[in-house]
């Protein structure tokens, strides 16, 4: 067992290690959400804020492309209504809002603890694609400068990043740099039990990448600690 960090704390942790992140604000009311959206600039994406709802799309907890403050307020109310229908309204801690990260290829980065080998770093296609395609690569932590390239070359879907059927190549160098920074973060925080960035949006070559969503599970303290 452990504790899931609040989403804005998880995003801040990535920022501390130089991983580019989408600007994120939180709100606990429809009016507060509209004020946050005004600060960010439209359009925005809204996501339910909850430490227990892991797959937000399954409960209608992600609404994209909100292009007016009225739509932002309506989106907040629709998430509340949907969770009430499911009997899960008590799990809602509010919402988070972000500027829309348009275009780019979604990638997932993760780390889980193996009982034999310790931390394993994972990379693969992100968003809902990771569950459909299951094309991911694992490597023992910590990563050296050579490992990100080796990991990416294990992916059957690598052409979607390097350019496929005339599509523009993505910023693979920026992705490799994020993998190394991700590994450094894991090295410095042994109390992290699981961490996932999903999605990390990798833009066209030379345009970098942005972490849009992150989850961090911190190990529970034992009595001796």
UniProtKB/TrEMBL annotation:
<dbReference type="InterPro" id="IPR011761">
    <property type="entry name" value="ATP-grasp"/>
</dbReference>
<dbReference type="InterPro" id="IPR013815">
    <property type="entry name" value="ATP_grasp_subdomain_1"/>
</dbReference>
<feature type="domain" description="ATP-grasp">
    <location>
        <begin position="11"/>
        <end position="47"/>
    </location>
</feature>
<dbReference type="GO" id="GO:0016874">
    <property type="term" value="F:ligase activity"/>
</dbReference>
<dbReference type="GO" id="GO:0046872">
    <property type="term" value="F:metal ion binding"/>
</dbReference>
<keyword id="KW-0547">Nucleotide-binding</keyword>
<keyword id="KW-0067">ATP-binding</keyword>
<keyword id="KW-0436">Ligase</keyword>
<dbReference type="InterPro" id="IPR051538">
    <property type="entry name" value="Acyl-CoA_Synth/Transferase"/>
</dbReference>
<dbReference type="GO" id="GO:0005524">
    <property type="term" value="F:ATP binding"/>
</dbReference>
<protein>
    <recommendedName>
        <fullName>ATP-grasp domain-containing protein</fullName>
    </recommendedName>
</protein>
<dbReference type="Pfam" id="PF13549">
    <property type="entry name" value="ATP-grasp_5"/>
</dbReference>
